[in-house]
Amino acid sequence: MQTARTVLEQKIWERRQTLQEFTEWAEAFAREHDEPGTLSARHLQRLVAGQMPSGRPVGRPRPATMRLLEAIFGVGVDVLFAPPESATEQEDAYTSWQPSLNIGAAPACARRETTPAVQTPDARVDMAQSFAWLDARSGWSPETTRRKVTSRLASLTADEVLERPARRRKVSRSEIATAVVDYYGTAETGHHFYSATCGDSKIRTSVLTCDPWLDLGCQLSRGNDNVALRTDTSVAQHVVTSDRAIDRLAEAAVQGIRMANMPLYRLLNLEARPGAISAEVGTVPFIEYAVSMDLLENELIDALATGAPDQLPLRDYYLPNLDSVLNPSGRLCAGGVLALCAIARPPDPYRRERDFAIVVQQRSSYVLNAAQRLSVIPKGFHQPMTDLHADAHLTATLLREMEEELFGRTDVDNTMEGTRAAAPLHPGRMSEPMRWLMADPSRVRMECTGFGLNLISGNYEFACLLVIEDDDFWTRYGGEIEANWEASGLRLYSSLDPQLVDELVTDESWSNEGIFAFLQGIRRLRESRDERAKLPTIQIDPGD
User: Fold this and answer.
1) CA distance 276 to 290
2) pLDDT at 122
3) What count of other Cβ atoms lies within 10 Å of the Cβ of residue 178?
4) d(CA 293, CA 36)
5) How many CB atoms lie within 10 A of CB 303?
6) For a FRET experiment, which of 149, 344, 406, 487 has its CA 20 to 30 Å from that of 443?
7) Phi first, then psi: what are they for 478, rounded to 5°?
């Protein structure tokens, strides 16, 4: 009897598909799940064999292709590319907690009504800790959360899983912003919802801000972002709806959303003025945020999608009014750092002038929030790596996200395997592009352009601008810029094309925090009066 050479080949045989049939099915799967990975029959033939026709070992495929294979089969590529007899132990490590479900064992069309949905491997990271945390917080006996999630998974069909994200995608950014503004009304404290005009278009957002929080121009990495850690504070929000928490964990498992129960920085207080930021933060487990404040986003979008915008019990409990919004120390206020990235480019045969490449991402379906929406890049939660005090500075998060989302460093992605390095951002560990940038301070400019509270889920948002000034970077490393699993694709816009940038501003696919950071970054880049930046005028509407 013929023996499979790799687990990948064995699993394709189990599906009773030829290599050509599988590649066609994988292409349809990628479109359906917004995966950018591609797979040809010839490439697949080498992967299942584990070697090239010459006998040399086959190299690892592109990251997007690896993510696609992991999403289809529910195990990591290290397992898929291993011989079947050596992969059993590795596969057990991936599947130790999940129920016996198998959405991918046969073509979807053959099992449409009865196939239960199942998570992808990325969602299994740190699930055991998340289960234990919810057991303890809810007063349940050990393993209760695991059993509840398993039961919930078994009750879901593939069609149900696919319908919910599709329904959410139909709700526009403006609809979300309008619903938030209607819920909270007008502030009487000098705060207002961020609104801007670009050409004939007015963009309203769900980000609450105030004049002192805008036009910060705070140069990072120069000691101007004075964010200090306090260890004497905690927040213990009651998980008011444990059923919703179970649904959230099951949804994360089904959709392959990556969740690692690492600490997040929660905001306690803030003072921001032009040129300087001063703040105090504490820490909170990621899972506590995921099953409390983060639920507000999908609650609101689902309510809008089903025509019941007033049915928001979680929001009524966790974030009922502007007083609760503006009291971050009295609630769980997590958040992040996100930056408009502009990379200087020299002239080439297609672009006759020097310009900046403005990078925009479409978020993948595997991220916790703002899934499948446009955003700036890099974008990440503000959280520590190994040094709780030093990593509280915004610069640490911004550098980490650059390495992870633009330069492909997986060892700084805490949703993968955790951080083993004592100093992940030590110059000796930096990627070659990052090491080149850090060698000369004039090559890159990092600044915080604004601050706001995104009332979709109450998160704080530090909007930043990242400008790579030296166009030699593009010549050396432009081809190495590639998004990680958090993005389903990247777009580039020229800073010399104000019309396209103007059209981009009005795209309803943006997340609200993404368009906030984008507009702030475009304003600041335009104010630099650099001849490489001929961008549209962005006019902020104070107090709108």
Assistant:
1) 31
2) 38
3) 16
4) 30
5) 17
6) 487
7) -55, -35
Q: What pLDDT is attached to residue 160? A: 63
Judged by phi (left if over 0) then psi (alpha if -120 to 50, else beta), residue 528 lies in alpha
Largest CA distance in the chain: 77
Q: Measure the CA–CA gap between 103 and 116, rounded to whole angstroms.
A: 6
Which one, of 514, 222, 483, 542, lies nearest residue 371 by Cα?
Answer: 514
Closest CA to 467 of 381, 307, 320, 359: 359
In whole angstroms, what separates CA 352 from the centre of its chain? Answer: 35
What pLDDT score was predicted for residue 110? Answer: 32
pLDDT of residue 140: 86
Tell me the pLDDT band of 119, cut-offs 50, 70 and 90: very low
Backbone dihedral region of 216: left (phi > 0), alpha (psi from -120 to 50 degrees) or beta?
alpha
Provide the pLDDT for residue 101: 34
How far is Cα 204 from Cα 181, in angstroms, rounded to an integer? 9
Integer Cα distance of 513 and 465 in angstroms: 14
The pLDDT assigned to 133 comes to 83
- Mean pLDDT across the chain: 85
For 463-484, write each residue's pLDDT tens digit: 999 999 999 999 999 999 999 8
Mean pLDDT over residues 135-161, rounded? Answer: 82
Nearest to 404 by CA among 386, 431, 439: 431
261 pLDDT band, cuts 50/70/90, is confident
Q: What percent of the chain has pLDDT over 90?
A: 51
Cα 538 to Cα 464: distance, rounded to the nearest angstrom: 16
The helix (H) or strand (E) run that includes residue 279 is strand 276-285
Token pair in block for residue 68:
């696609």
DSSP per-residue codes, 288-312:
HHHTTTTHHHHHHHHHHHTT-TT--
When pLDDT is averaged across residues 158-174 and rounded to a whole number, the result is: 80
φ/ψ of 206, rounded to 5, equals -95, 10
Quote the pLDDT of residue 164: 78
User: Which tokens go with 31?
Assistant: 């479109």
CA dist 90 and 513 (Å) reads: 39
Which pTM value belongs to this model?
0.78
- Please provide the size of the chain in residues: 544
CATH class of 184-234+262-284+320-415+427-543: alpha beta
Dump pLDDT digits (tens) for 301-343: 999 998 888 889 999 999 999 999 999 999 999 999 999 999 9
Joined together, the tokens standing for residue 457 give 């889920």
Spans of all domains in the chain: 7-81, 184-234+262-284+320-415+427-543
CA–CA distances in Å: residue 394 to residues 27, 220, 332, 384? 39, 8, 19, 10
Return phi, psi of residue 348, to 5°.
Answer: -145, 180
SS3 (DSSP) at 204 = strand
According to the 3-state scheme, what is the secondary structure of 45-78? HHHHHCECCCCCECCCCCHHHHHHHHHHHCCCHH
